[in-house]
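Batch manifest, entry 17 of 40.
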Amino acid sequence: MPRVLVSEGVPEAGVSVLEEAGIDVRRGGGLDGALGWLCLLTDRVDRARLASAPGLRIVANMAVGTDNVDLVAAEELGIAVSNTPDVLTDSTADLAFGLLLAAARGIVWADRFVRAGAFTGWTPSLGVGLDVSGRTLGIVGAGRIGVAMAERARGFAMEVMLHSRSSGVPLDELLERSDFVSLHVPLTPETRHLIAERELARMRPSAVLVNTARGAIVDEAALVRALRQGVIAGAALDVFEDEPALAPGLAELPNVVLCPHLGSATYDTRDRMAEIAAQNVVACLAGRALLTPVVSP
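Output type: C-alpha cells
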C-alpha cells in the first residue's frame, strides 16, 4: 500500500478519500517512506524537508496559496505540488465583507459594550460609524476571491475599483479614491509589504483596510503606526505578518477588528478543501493528471 503523510488537523473528509483509494495514511510524523504529503498552510515545506524524502511524489497543499512551499525546489526534485482553489472563494469573500461591515459599523465594539453592561440607553452619538452603502471599495487583486468580493459590494450599491498587475486602475489611484481597501493578492516577493507606510499615507483618513489574503502583504508595524496616528480610520485583519504573533500594539488598538485566519472556516469549505487535496494525491499516485496543479509531475 502506498504511504501518505497527512498533517495533523486535516479534516476526516480528506482522510476518507485516501483510505477508500487503498492508501496507507500516516497522521503526523515524518516523511520516511511517504509517496505523498497532504499538508496545511502552516507546514513549512522547504528544500531540506523535500530533499529528505527521496520517494516523495506529491505535496498536496490544503490551501489556495502556496507561499509555504518551495516551488522551485519541488520542481527541481520532480515533486508535484497542488492546491485547493475555487472551493473557498465564497467563504473567504463572505468573511472579507463581514470584516468590512464590522470595522465600518463598530460591531465588535458594540457587542463588548453591551456585554459589559455599559448600555444604559440610546443616544444620537452612541457607536456612530461609517456608511458602507454607496461608498467606494478598492479591491487589490482581481482573482477569484477579489471578483467575488466585488459581487458582494455591488449588492450594497458600492462603486468598485479593481487593481491587478495587468489591469485595472493604478494602485496609488485606488488607494487615494477608496473608502475601503480589500486585499486579495497572493504572497510573493513582489507583494510582500505591498501596503506599507507610503501606501497607507495615500489612503483617506476615513478609510478602512481589510486583509484576508496573507499577513505579510501589509507592513504590520507601519499599519499600527497609521492606526494610532489617524492616518486611516480602521482595519480588519484575518491574517498577520508573523502569524500567529501580532505586531506590538496591534491588539490594543480600538480601531481594528482581528480574526484568527478564518477565511475558509466553514464546515463545507474545509471538508471540500481536504477532499480536493486528497483527490490530487490519489490522481498523482495513480499516474493521472492532477485536478489543481501548481507544479506538475
